[in-house]
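Researcher: Here's the sequence for the chain we discussed earlier.
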Amino acid sequence: MRVDPGVWHSQSFDAGGWMQPYLHDGADTGVTEYEIGNDHIVVRFRSGRTYRYSHGRAGEVHVRRMKECARAGRGLSTYISQHVHDLHD
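Model: Thanks. This is the structure I predict for it:
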């Protein structure tokens, strides 16, 4: 597997099957899956790239809002592009 700088990778996502499908509202989205942790959210995009956003890097308020968007299936990709695009671990 090629590892790109700044991209959080783990083979356990697929093997473990613990990422949740992003059940969006039918709008076009770049997000396909997510995983919620206590202090972070991991987001997989249509490109196959996976990014981890944590309290330490993106901030607790942003991570909390991204979790809300993920659970609601609405606005996660837009929120990331507008507020935390480069603030991944």
